[in-house]
Each structure stands twice: as structure tokens, then as C-alpha cells.
Amino acid sequence: MINVMYKNSCPNCGGDISADRLLNGLPCETCLPYINGIDGVDNISKVKALYNILLDNDKIKNYWNLYYNITTFETVFKYFKDKTGYEPWSLQKLWLRRLVSNQSFTMSAPTGLGKTTTLMTYSVFIGQDVVYIVPTKSLMEQVCKRLEKLGAQVSCGKVDQRKVSVITISYLNKNANSITSYKPNFVAIDDADAVIKSGKTTDRLVSLLGIPNDVYESAIQLIRLRNKYYFSNEFTEEIKEKIRELELKIAEFKDKISQLVIASATIRPKGIKQKALRLLTGFEPSSIQLYARNIIDTYTDNLDLSIVKELGSGGLILVSKEYGRSRLNEIKKYVEDLGFNAKLAISGRKFLDDFSQGKVDILVGSASYYGVAVRGIDEPKRLKYVIYYGVPKIKAKLFDALSNPFTLLRVGKMIGVNFSELQNKILVLSPSETQLLKFSIIKGETINYQKLDQLRQELLYYISLVKDKLKEIGEETLISDNFVITKQNTNYYIIYPDMITYLQGSGRASRLYNGGLTLGFSIILVDDKHIFEILKKKMQKLFPNTNFTSLSNINLSEIKTKLEESRKEEGNRVHFNISTGLLIVESPTKAKTIAKMFSRPSVRVINKVPVYETIIVDGNQIYVLDVVASKGHIVDLTLEDIGYYGIKVEDSGIIKPYYDLIKKCLDCNKTFSITSDKCPYCGSTNVQTAQTTINLLRELALSVDKVFIASDPDTEGEKIAYDLASFLSPYNSNVYRITYHEITKKAILEALRNPMKINTNLVMSQIVRRIEDRWIGFTLSNLLKTKFNGHNHGAGRVQTPVLGWIVDKTMKYKSSMGYVVYIDIAGYSIKMYFSERKKMEEYINNLQVVKIEKISEEKILLSPLPPFTTDTLLIEANMKYKLPANLVMKIAQDLFEAGLITYHRTDSTHISSVGIEIAKEYLQKQGLIKDFVPRSWESSEEGAHEAIRPTRAVDVNELIQEIEENPYKYSIRFSKLHFLIYDLIFRRFMASQMSHAVGTKSRYLIKLNKDDNINTELLSNAEGGFIKVYPVKVYNLPLGEVKPKVNTGKGSSEQLLSYSDVISLMKSKGIGRPSTYAKTIENLVRHGYIVSSKRKSYLIATNRGISAYQFLSSKFYDLVSEGTTAKLMSKLDDIALSKLSASTVLLEIFSEISTLVNPLKSEQNV
């Protein structure tokens, strides 16, 4: 039996505790030796019962905090019900938990989900020292009345610290001096736009929150320093130290400011003061999330507004910006002439009040993303349809837009400017670098960072090329797939469809009302067919079910009836089930990718950890999720002096591995797992601990309905999930494991629909592998250090045989050194070895010509290779591009986390039906559907591991185009190598789904000298089928007498091993796994046992490596041989499949080590 133990992790006393106890939500045995009768009890009742038992036994310690939080939540929920008459919804419970936990955040949800009710109820719950800020007097009066109805003591229009003070932003600005000494406990802002837009208002709010001016100035200074010196040559240690000082000063004060909660915001902060406020509060006001659309999208090819007459009252007309204010007035008059009351929706809120009260039938505003008509209207009952007068579009002067490197690249390509040299430099730019280049070009300034400034100069040169080319073309209109360029008078303009404005504006007609989404109707009066077609394409990409219907095919009378029906009390609306959750992934990149995939997430930074709040809509199910990264493993086997290297093996056969939190020294960058916060390597106390992450995850887990652990779908990921579940189960009993093999919307939704329990067989397999690695590694490493009197020695069950192969080849290579002649004939190379230089020179002198005869040829069928597995990808990337395995794995990890490829640690060639459809879509798009031959390659259950394949039918050129169009789409920073590896994976996969090719196999007789005749078979031609996307090497040797190219040099009759050779051997001999190929070679390099040759990436054993291997193989052959290692790998697989007992295998290993090692340890000459 294996009993996993966590050091210092009891939720009550902080002592050692078993995983079983934690998973059952219990404190350790010291706190609570015996416990009965709590199986099947809900989490809240369990916490209360445990609290009372601990209290009765005088054992209560930290568990009091958990009990306090749970009971406080219950108290505020009951208070909410008493005041409102109904139970808070799931989302309201989330907000209430955050509120009573004193968190600052944004309520990023649309109208209709109870934001205002929640804020008001909590304000009444606090009772005093509350400031509630609203944008207008009329709204202030409404809020005051509602608060009084809820039983609050209200100060309406002025600040009174004994009450709930409701004030306007105007009051805050005018009376800032009189309230400088007042620091409320809680500040609620109903609409943050006025704060975000105005630096002056931000100053006032900062003062109200109790932030001293010097701390505020420090935040502003920190942002300026980061902006100025991030890419500068002047980024000295002194400036770094100053930045650290400012960060520390701000961090020390963060917990002392008032709680701030924002009910809604429609724009994001851009000014430096607003960014400073974000830094100080740990979150930024985020825009309201778009949950779903319930809209009929239509269009007509004219600007006829007479449709208003048929649709009637309840409309919003949004006029494309280029028509100007005068057209708004003309349209208002036209609508009034039709017999309707119309009003301009340009500023303020009076128009909205009149519209809400039915005094106004039709609103007329500008189709501007920041306009109040597009973002400031929430009228579920009154607003039924939106008419766009002209396609919403963004229009900018082209020559100004060219300051953006990506726009320059797209425009240049469109008009035929050769960007081959510049493209790669632009594609790898980070968002910060892009912005810096853009502003430096606009302002005509140089950049302190030399590399970026050189690129700025290149961009200026290409801008002049584009301008000249445009003048040369002389066309009035140029059309691309994503934008249109027009010439008006002497100026060129670039025009894009404004999809966000269309989404936001049309969304005004489909709002949440009584728990359901009303039906909305949208009509675009098309004034530019090209821009409309681009808009359609973009909308269908974002919402695949979007279908723009011609207005001529619409029954307006029927639509009008449906719109009105949808707004009745019991009307036909789309209803949702909203639940809250915590989604834990391994890496920050993956967290950001998933959060961005479904919505524009809001971000809170808690203890330097970003928490992304995103909305995931799955039909009628809506998840409001906090997405956080654990950053991989949170625990590792302890380095403390416990048992045998951290694992106790008891006489009874029970094995207790002790795990400690992982810590990282920020000075020497080494990780360790001991109780002390002092680095055992360098003595520094500048240490980062996983406890910070665990505390955050526990806090978040307490606030949500469910916890979803989405670590990688392998044994390492399962162990991470097991550890996380152990630490979080006392805080939330609804902990689930979800897995996916690609980061796509479809895969994430499928995972959330099918939550699972943790697979303990996989966990046990990982535990056995890790303990075996610790026992073997530490035992042999210590013996090596003693033997060779040095540090940085290491050995392992897999590393040692791999080192043996490399040592063997290196020694044979060195013992067979001589001279080599390379004979090149039209790309076909022949290698001749000579032991003596004289013989080599004689051979070359006699080699004047080579005679080539074609003996025969035959037609053959060439079969495509299966898609990549981990080993074949590493082999191919090394053979083609000479890339080391660890670099290829890093790039593949990036591509996976960006959602571009499936999981890259796999030994399966299986392709799912989803993958096959992707191949079909791409080949259809490329006109190659006749070559489509669907293959699954291996029989496998749906959802099981797949080969490495792309997640979409997007080739590398289309991917580059996507990045040019939206540089911020992906959460990784691309390099040239990312495109190379993606292209390799993509083409290999597509080839695997295509027909056979036809090849010609030719047999040649090559006569070098009198006695040197070489018979060889070569592929001389290949065409058709998969060759169209994945070419193979062919040789067309000239016939007759040919003068060859000859090169000579020192060499050996033996060939050194390359990365690809080693990985092939690991695979074939059964000692490699997808997670270990690259790591094994990397570890051998790190220990100084092998080096990689620069030119051809051969792996060469060092003297140190040779000595280490000779010692290990002579003393411990039975422990580290290929056969023993392969058997262990097989046993680990059997444990994962529940065919073998994990404890049995560990006891065997322990016995094996004791038998072989202990006698050697007793020898004096180790």
C-alpha cells in the first residue's frame, strides 16, 4: 500500500497529513484521530461538524478561518434572501462571497443578472462607511430609494460616514477637498467609464480609497519606468533595483486600501493614471461580457429607412461614422416625418430615460464603438431592433496606419511589395515592441534599443516603397480579403468592417430579461458591398451559426410578433443555467489562451498571480470561470531527512512518500522541496513558494460552485490534478478532473460536459516512476560524487543506458579515426573511408570521372507516413533542421498552449473523426479533395490520445496571415522556428490523409575506380497523392561519365549518434516515453556527460561521461541495463492500466537497490 503524505499541509494545525485525509476534507490524525458518520455529508455541514469536534477537543487552530468563511457566506446569503425575498443565484453567490472576503473586482456581467441588487444588498449589510458612486442625479435618486426600501440608512447626494452615501461622480470631483480625510470601508461604482476617461476623476477616486499620494506617484513612476526602459539599452541594474523598490512599496500598501467593486464598464483603461489605479487595486475595470446572441441578422442593398414604418416603436438606428453629425439630424427628421418620436443618442442619459418611459419611439446614434448608443443602452423590454445605416466600419488615413508594422506588411503584400526579408522580423514582434515601433514612427523618434531602432529604420524604408507603389498603381479602390483601400482626392484610406461595433450595437436588441435572452432583430443597410462581405466572413468565423438573410426574404409582420412576444412577462426567450467555477491549468499561457478563446476576460492580479475571469457559453449552460495556472507541479518528494531519500518503507509493507511544497530561489533559480524558506544551494531567502498558489486556489475554490482541474492528459498531469484535489477538497467538495487533447472551444466544452474522477492508477504509475527516479538517481549520484570527488553528477534508470549508447559510439568513432572522401553526384553522396592519408590521396588522384549506368527502373506505389508521434516529430525535426529535442519540445509546447496543435506528448498515431474532418476541409479548400483518403491509423476509442495534428484547417501561410491581421490573437511569441515546426506537423498530417503517390525506383551501377562498383536503388521520381503537400527526396543521377564533386577531411568509419538516432533507439528498445525523450538527453548534457556537435548535431560523450558510465556499468549493470529499464517501463504501463500493484513494484525496486548498493557502500574504495 502507498500512503501519500504531504508535509506541513494540515488545514488545521499545519502538520503532516495524508492525501486520503485531505481528499475527504479532514484534518490530520494528530488533530482528529478518529472520525465517523460524515461520509456523504455535504461540505458545509462537514466543516461545521469538524469545527465543533476540534473545538470540543481543544484542537482548533487554522480550521477556524475555513469555518468563519463558510458561516459568513451563509449569513450574507440569508441576509440577501431576507432583504430581496429570493435565494441569490449562483453568480450572485460568487459576488457575495468575494464581497464578504474583502476582494476588489469588476462584475463583468450584462444587465439582468442582479449586479445592482447584489451591490445594494451588500451595502446595506455593511450599513455604514459605504460610498456608492453613480454617473447621474436621476440614477442617484433611484438608487437611494431602492436602498431605503432595503432598510439602509442613506445619505443621498453627500458623504456621511455613518450611512450608505450615494453620490455622483460630479459630487466627487467638486467636493474632493472636503472628504480627503475620509476613507470608507467599501466603494461601489455603478458605471466606471467616467473614472476611466478622466485622469482628474481617477485622482479623486485614489484619494477616496485611502491611497497616499506618494504611493500613487510611485505606481505612476513604476509604469513610466517599465514603459521607457523595457527595450532600452539603458535598462541597467540600478533601474531594475529602482523598479523592485517601487514594486515592494506598492505591494506593502495594497492590503490597506478600501474595497473597490465596479458594477460595469464599457471601455478599458488607457491613461497612465488609470493604469496606476489598476496596479494598486489588482484589477482593471473590464467590459461587460457578451454571454450569447439571440439575434436575427439581415441586410438589404440600399439605404432605405422606410422599414421603420413596418417595425414601429422600439428601434435604434446606428449611422456609420463617415456620414457625420448632419446625417444623424437628417435621419431623425425623416423618422419624425414617418410619425414617430425620435431622439439623438449622442451623450448623457436623458435620451435613455425618455426612451424607457415610452416618450421616444426611435433612437438615432453613431455606429461608434465608444458611443453611448452602441455601449450605453440596456433596455430589454423597449429596444427590439437595430438598423445600421451603412456597414459599420473603421476608416483611417492609410499612410498613418502604415506606422503599424503588421498593417504595413499586409498592405505591402497586397500591392506586390517584396517583404521576404522583413516579414520574419515583424511576425516575431511582441505587442510591446509593436507599440513602441508604431509610436516612434508616428513621432519621428529614435528607439534606445539598437535592434528595434534598426527595424524602425527598415520599416520607414518599406513605408516609402509602399507609398511609391500605390502611386504607381494609381487605382481608386483596392480590395483584399480583410480591408479595402480607397483614394479620395489626394489621400489614401484604409477601411475595415467594425465587427465589434456590430456585435455590441446589435446586442442592444437582445438582452437578459427575467432570466432569459430576448429576441433581437438587426438590419444592415449596405452602402459598401466589399466591406459587408468581409464583415460577414468575420462574423461567421466567430459565430459559425451566423447567417445574414436578405431582408427581401423576411416576413416582417411575423418578426414583429416574435419580438413583442419575447418581451412579455412569460414570453418566449432563451433561458440559461449559470454556474460558477474555478478552472486550473498548468501554464499561464494556457490560462490566457482558454480565457481569451471564449470572451474578452477580466483580469485580477492576486499575490502576483493573474486570475482570468471568462464566460463560457455552451447552449443554455453558462459557466463563469476563474482560470488560473498552477505552474506545473506544486509538490515534490521532500529533500528532508525522512526514510530513504524522502520515502518511508515500513516493515508492514506500507510505503509513505513524503511530499513538500516546491520552492524556487529567485537568486540562483534553483528549485527545492524542503520545509525551510532558505535556499539550500545559495542561502538566499528571496524564495518563491507554491504555498502562495495554493492559498490563492483555496480562496478561489471557496467562492465557486465547482473546481475543474485541467492539467495535461498524461501521468504527470494526473499527479498534478491529484495533488491539487488533495489541497482543495477541504475547501470545495465539488472537485473534478477534466481532460482535453487540444485547446479548442469544442474540446474545452466537451471536457466541461464530461467531468471525471481522478485516475488513481495513472497517479500511482507516476508516483512509482518518481520514487524510482529518486532512489536510483540519488543513490547513484551520491556514489558518483564520492567516486569522482565532484558535484553535478547524476544517473538514472533511463539516462544510464542512453549514455552507454553514446559512449560506445564515441569510443568506436575515436578508435576508428582516419580520412574520409565525400563524393557528391547530383546530390547523392558516397562516403569512402581510408585509414591512411596517402591511400586517400592516391584514391582521389585516380578518381577523375565516375561512370553511371541505369540498370533498371520500375513504378512503385509510395504510401504516406502516419502523422507524428512525439518520437517521430523529434526525429524529423532533427533530421530536417538539426534542432535539438528539448527545443522542438519547447516549440511544440507553445503551439499546443496556443491552441494550434493537439497534445504533443503522445505515442499514438490515431486520428479522430474531428481530425479527419479537418483534413477534408483543408483539401477541399485547396482543390485536392480527389486525393482525400481518410485514415484513423490506429483503432482507438474517441477521446483517447491522438497523434500530433493541427487543430484547424489552417496552413502556415494562413496562420501568418492571421497573425498579420491580429497580432494579439495568440498568447505566445512566435519565432521562425514556430512556423517551421507548425508547417512540418501540418503537412505531415495532411499527407497522412491523402492517397498514395506514384514513384519510380531506379537501380544504378556507379563505377568509381577499377575495383569500386556501387549498386544502389534510388527513388528517381515521385508524383501525385500526398507528394503535393509532403514532398520526398528524389535523385536524378546523370548517366555516362560524370565529374563528381569531391571533399575530404578527417573522419571515422563509425558514425556518431545524432539526436534522432538516440530517440529512435529509446523508442525501439522500449525505454523511452513521450515525456522522457528530450529530458533524458537534456539531463546528460546538463551533467556534462555529453556534448552536441555544432554543425551536424551529433552527440559525443565527454571524458567525464565515459568515466561515469564505465563505473556505473561495471558496478550496477543489473540496475541500469537496457533490459532492466525496459521491464520497469513496462511495469509502469501495467500500473497505469491497473494490471499491477504499485506497492509491489516499489518494494521490488527497494530490495533491488539494497541488494546491489549496500555492499558497495561498505567498501572503502568506492
TrEMBL record:
Its cofactor is Zn(2+); Mg(2+). Its main location: cytoplasm. Residues 1-40 form the RG N-terminal-type domain. GO terms for biological process: DNA replication; DNA topological change. It is found in: Cytoplasm. Residues 96-285 form the Helicase ATP-binding domain. Monomer. Introduction of positive supercoils requires the cooperation of both domains. The helicase-like domain probably does not directly unwind DNA, but more likely acts by driving ATP-dependent conformational changes within the whole enzyme. A beta hairpin in the 'latch' region of the N-terminal domain plays a regulatory role in the enzyme, repressing topoisomerase activity in the absence of ATP and preventing the enzyme from acting as an ATP-independent relaxing enzyme; it also helps to coordinate nucleotide hydrolysis by the ATPase domain with the supercoiling activity of the topoisomerase domain. This is Reverse gyrase. It comes from Saccharolobus islandicus (strain M.16.27) (Sulfolobus islandicus).
